[in-house]
Amino acid sequence: MKRTLYNEDHEAFRVSVRGWLEREVTPRLDEFIEAKAIPRDVWIEAGKQGFLGLEIEDEYGGSQADDYRFNAVMSEELSRVSAALSSCLGIHADIVAPYLRDLCTEEQKQRWLPAFCTGELVTAIGMTEPSGGSDLAALKTTAVRDGDVWVLNGSKTFITNGYSADLVVVAARTTPGSGARGISLFGVEATMEGFSRGRKLDKVGQTESDTSELFFDNVRVPTANLIGELDRGFIHMMERLPQERLGAAVSNIAHAAGILDETLDYIKERKAFGQPVGSFQHNKFLAAELVTKIEVSQAFVDQCVLAFNEGTLTAVDAAKAKWWSAEIQNDVIDACVQLYGGYGYMNEYRVARAWRDARVTKIWAGSNEIMKELIGRDLGL
To answer: What is the per-residue burial (b if ≥16 Cβ within 10 Å, else e) of 172-191?
Structure first.
């Protein structure tokens, strides 16, 4: 089905992103996998192309697109090349950006945003803790006021861009015993004494993304680095999680659609028993199911993008998009592996890597079980 989400400006932007990926990124993917990171020169080049500051005002070096569809185009193109690349750049440009744009003071914006847009300052967000998982209200990292600084202690884990980030938006408890109401956000700079990183985590998939643990040992963070309002960090996060989950949904469907396109080409060419594999009735029916699943899911996600642009996307609809797209992504790519046969299990084939890369999407941005809990509550259950 023809999509109606984008106009000529969005498609022109897609051509720009796709061209950059073909020139600068695709030829180097093996290098990224080996390094377990996206090299800084790629970030700098993305900044030069204007891809990192889509949501940032032009006075700070951003594009100020004021249209989430540009974010969606970039996410789609990144995901078709590398799910991990989409994760890394997406954390920075699509997830951290709203925190800095909406919550930072003018002084903070002047200090951080120009380098944020050029790729000289890479960002991450520190929510998840070793003992907490999706339960953000239970976080244990603390921030205690000491004159004109806050003293941070604790740790975070599974942090995308964690190993390379220059600035981390960290959620910490500022009022003990207050549950969700006692959490605040801080801009922790990597040069601060007491801040350290663990090893790059050895993940099942998305090897190119540098995911790590972060540690805070009496890190003295100036009061000028408080992001947003004191003790309202949980609310700030809840207000921005729908965008994170929408971004995940856009990426999930684009990733699966790209692999499915490659698989359809493959089963038209690969032969068994003297005829193309795709011509066998079972495989033909399976392909029909997979294409339909992608297109129907895409239609819902596209509507969510439009709703977000209009300011009407609810947290519940974002949760629906996140969990459903993750399920469809994993189902479709798993079927693609089967259609490739033994070759689908070989790392040299992109479908095998995509199969591994997709699995985490049922877990991050709030596990699929948490998404269903949110939807169930909305049903009055």
So the answer is: bbbeeeeebebbbbbbbbbe
Single-letter amino acid, residue 169: V
Q: How confident is the model at residue 134 (pLDDT cuts 50, 70, 90)?
A: low
Is residue 315 within 8 A of residue 242, CB to CB? The reply is yes
The residues with which 276 forms a beta bridge, in sequence order, are 271
Tokens representing residue 96 in the block: 């951290």
Q: Are strands 275-276 and 271-272 parallel, antiparallel or unpaired?
A: antiparallel
**Span 69-85, mean pLDDT?**
97
Q: Does residue 152 sit in helix, strand or coil?
A: strand
Closest to 76 measured CA to CA, from 248, 300, 308, 294: 248
What are phi and psi for residue 118, nearest 5 degrees? -85, -15
Q: Which residues contact 236 (CB under 8 A, 6 or more apart)?
A: 99, 103, 185, 227, 228, 229
Position 133 confidence tier, pLDDT thresholds 50, 70, 90: low
- Does the annotation count 244 as an active-site position? yes
Q: Are 250 and 305 in contact (CB under 8 A)?
A: yes
Cβ density class 97-136: b for 16+ within 10 Å, e for less? bbbbbebbeeebbebbbbbbbbbebbbbbbbbbeebebeb
Q: Considering the entire predicted model, what is its pTM?
A: 0.96
DSSP state string for 52-78: S-TTS-GGGT------HHHHHHHHHHH
Of all residues in the chain, the percent with pLDDT exceeding 90 is: 94
Q: Find out whether 275 and 261 touch, Cβ atoms under 8 Å.
A: no
In angstroms, the CA 268 to CA 263 distance is: 9
Q: How far apart are CA 331 and CA 333, in angstroms?
A: 6
Element (H, E) at 316: helix 315-340
CB 351 within 8 A of CB 337: yes
What secondary structure does DSSP assign to 36-57, as a single string? TS--HHHHHHHHHTT-S-TTS-
Give, in order, the Cα–Cα distances in Å from 92 to each of 120, 198, 244, 322: 12, 20, 11, 19
Catalytic-role residue among 55, 244, 262, 348? 244
Q: Which of 241, 243, 238, 245 is nearest to 68 (CA)?
A: 243
Task: Read off the DSSP letter of residue 198.
Answer: E
Residue 180: per-residue pLDDT: 82
Q: CB atoms < 10 A from the CB of 224, how many?
A: 12
